[in-house]
Amino acid sequence: MNARPARISARSVDEYRDTVEGLLRPLAARPLEDVAVPAALDRLLAADMRSPVELPVFRNSAMDGYAVDAASVLVTPVTLPVAGVVAAGDAGRAPLPPGAAVKIMTGAPLPPGADCVVPVEDTESDGATVTVRRGRSTGEFVREPGTDVRAGDLLVPAGTALAPRHIAALAAVGLAEVPVFVPVRAAVITTGDELVPAGKPLRPGQIYNSNGIALAAALRANGVAVTTVEHSTDDPAVLRELLTAATRSADLVITSGGVSKGDFEVVKDVLAPLGGVFGSVAMQPGGPQGLTVVDGVPVLSFPGNPVSTMVSFEVFARPILRALSGLAPVPDREARLAEPVRSPAGRRQFLRGRLTDAGVVELVSGPGSHLVAGMAWADVLVDIPAEATELPAGAAVRVRAL
Question: Which of 78, 190, 245, 378 has the greatest number of beta carbons closer than 10 A?
């Protein structure tokens, strides 16, 4: 992680994304920890989990009804004496008397001598006897040991992001703990004297700081543990202090703002002397980008306009972070434009859109990096190729779910 990132000035989106992924890919070699199965939801499994037991563990009933010998109910209706009751959890293994029935509950162990279960709805009983109106063949409504999983069978493979269904299976075979990867840890630092926290009154020239909240939410939604969310003024000393603290607790730092060509670009001013490389990627919004390695920790520096920040995350950080977290990739799909589009020559444009059930994408705002409300209304990013300057309504484009 000590290699200096390659220059990114004038790079294409794909080239820069490859550079970011190359910088973050070593984070796949993370430490492991054992966690209790109930606490393992969404964690990335670090080893194959094999069942220590058979499921079902014992022969049991699949229905509420009566356990019988199938030979005794070949001709129906037939009335049999009821020799007892077996409930789920009963340990008793008294054999079934010949020519009798045992009332049995779903999941209860089948008594020796019984080989099928007659559902209760096919019977009538006065308590002492039961009349079977429809016979059943050997094995009907009986769960045999190992028919679900056998001891040693693969239950959940390594690399699985554990969903509720996996948690259920692990608990069902009696596993108390599983080994999982420690999640990627990320710190967020926003910058700018003009930003204030939500809930405080705005003075002239100020805006609310949405980037810290938005980036933290995006990281968590893609399997990353957020260690800190901090804000720096445009004072380089403040940013240096926050960066030092962030790199001690995180595997990755994401900054927003201070990377363009203005007079007060605090991120660039602080990180460029440390080997950071800043330049423009051929895209809109989100062109200004920066990459640095500080004390072995990658620092991704996104532009500060809220839409630029979130588009940068979606295009450059989200794919590799999902892969590192064991989450399924978010694939692109093809859609048709609902309206014509103009795009600047030589820059790949990412517009916000809303996808209809018919596979048509409607644009919900313009290309401006300040149009925050459009991100809330949109459900896809619309990818306009760098070589396209005009596309008519109905043209095919690639879209990616937000």
Answer: 190
Smallest CA-to-CA distance from 110 within 131, 79, 136 is with 136
Residues 72-131: tens digit of each pLDDT: 999 999 999 999 999 999 986 799 999 999 999 999 999 999 999 999 999 999 999 999
Tokens (6 digits) for 18 = 């490859």
Q: Encode pLDDT of 281-307 as tens digits.
A: 999 999 999 999 999 999 999 999 999
- Strands, DSSP E only, in 91-169? 101-104, 116-119, 123-125, 129-132, 142-143, 154-156
Cα separation, 111 vs 58, whole angstroms: 11
- Output the average pLDDT for the chain: 93
Whole-number CA gyration radius for the chain: 31
Q: Are strands 60-61 and 332-337 parallel, antiparallel or unpaired?
A: unpaired
User: Is there a contact between 178 and 159 (Cβ–Cβ < 8 Å)?
Assistant: no
Contact criterion met (CB below 8 Å) for 361 and 399: yes
Which two structure tokens, joined as six digits, stand for 252?
A: 């990755």
Asked, as a colleague might, if the bond just before 285 is cis with ω within 30 of 0, I would say yes
CA distances from 81 to 72, 105, 120, 124, 198 (A): 11, 17, 15, 12, 74
Q: Which residues pair with 360 in a beta bridge?
A: 336
Contact indicator for 367, 389 with CB cutoff of 8 Å: no
| pTM (two decimals) | 0.80
Q: In the Cβ-directed half-sphere of 65, how many Cα atoms lie within 13 Å?
A: 27
Please state, as a whole number, how many other Cβ atoms lie within 10 Å of the Cβ of residue 152: 11
Q: Are the CB atoms for 78 and 163 separated by under 8 Å? A: no
- Do 308 and 11 touch, CB atoms closer than 8 A? no
